[in-house]
Amino acid sequence: MWSGPRNLSTAMMYSFGARADCAVVDEPFYAAYLMKTGFDHPMRDEIIATQPTDPAKVIDTLLGPIPDGKAHFYQKHMSQHMIEGVPRDWVHRVANVFLIRHPARVAASFSAKYDNPTLADIGFVQQAELYDQLVAAGARPVVVDSADIRRDPETMLKRLCAAIGLAWDPAMLSWAAGGHPDDGLWAAHWYEAVHQSTGFAPAEGALPDLDGPRAALAEAAMPAYEHLRAVALSL
Q1: Can you give the pLDDT at residue 6?
Q2: Are 88 and 134 contacting, i.e. CB atoms less than 8 angstroms apart?
Q3: 32 neighbors 86 (Cβ within 8 angstroms)
Q4: Would you say residue 235 lies in a domain?
Q5: In order along the chain (235 residues), what is the average pLDDT of each group of 10 residues?
Q6: Cβ proximity of 32 and 80 under 8 Å
Q7: What CATH code is carried by the domain that includes residue 73?
Q8: Gene3D superfamilies, per this entry (predicted)?
Q9: β-strand pairing of 72-78 with 2-3
Q10: ∠7-72-76 over CA atoms, to 5°?
């Protein structure tokens, strides 16, 4: 599952993690990304200490045996982690889904938690690149918009499961409050709202009004978003 920040990605991980047949992993390339970029994200040193910083080791885990003997492995990935030096060829060996959200909502939400975000920080361009890479190789990746999931979780999750050949499980509609055992170490900084949830939040209202750098950021991300939105599963 390829997402960007502030994009329903953790709730989706909880949804799949509620299935008895599904193991999950939370942003396994995060430490490698921090090490290669030098970015000073919250909890940087702790994240680097608790995750592999060698992308090859991460990939070996992603393509190796599924944890806990489960039948399926839900991998929550941030598209912006796929920087130069992180191989992408392994993506052809897994089923790929792209989770998108309107750039105005991402720009508003992410900038409230992270100072002066850039286009590279929010993952839209990398999502579009990965999608095009897969299509060029003959794959049929799936795109789903978080807004549609929030409007009708059951319908959209059923359609998503059908698109990737996974049997529907109504357990995906709810989870226990308080987080998931496989949350990344950074959950304390980023996941407060979703830790209080037991299911998907209702549909969002009007798009936020943005100005200045946030408006420019959202505008810059729109072409990549619209490219993927055009092929997204629909209600």
Answers
A1: 87
A2: no
A3: yes
A4: no
A5: 94 97 97 95 93 97 97 97 95 98 94 85 96 97 98 98 98 95 84 91 95 95 98 94
A6: no
A7: 3.40.50
A8: P-loop containing nucleotide triphosphate hydrolases
A9: parallel
A10: 20
Structural domain including 208 reads 2-230
The DSSP code for 45 is H
> What would the pLDDT profile of 126-178 be if each residue is shown by its tens digit?
999 999 999 999 999 999 999 999 999 999 999 999 999 999 999 999 999 99
In angstroms, the CA 77 to CA 62 distance is 11
Q: Answer yes or no: is 93 within a domain.
A: yes
Q: What is the pLDDT of residues 22-33, one digit of tens each?
A: 999 999 999 999
Task: State the Cα–Cα distance between residues 139 and 72, nearest whole angstrom.
Answer: 19
Q: Rounded to the nearest 5 degrees, what angle is found at the Cα of 47, between the Cα atoms of 2 and 36?
A: 70
Rounded Cα–Cα distance for residues 222 and 118 (Å): 14
Tokens matching residue 141: 């990746």
Q: Is the Cβ–Cβ distance between 58 and 8 less than 8 Å?
A: no
Between CA 174 and CA 95 the distance in angstroms is: 23
Is 148 contained in some domain?
yes
pLDDT at 153: 98
Q: What is the pLDDT of residue 188?
A: 81
Taking each helix axis as running N to C, give the angle between helix 212-229 and helix 103-111, from 0 to 180 degrees, rounded to the nearest 10.
140
The confidence score (pLDDT) of residue 230 equals 98
Amino acid 193: pLDDT: 85
Q: Return d(Cα 29, Cα 77) in angstroms, integer.
A: 8
Q: Is residue 143 one of the residues assigned to a domain?
A: yes
Please say whether the beta carbons of 200 and 174 come within 8 A: no
Give kind and range of the element (H or E) at residue 99.
strand 97-100
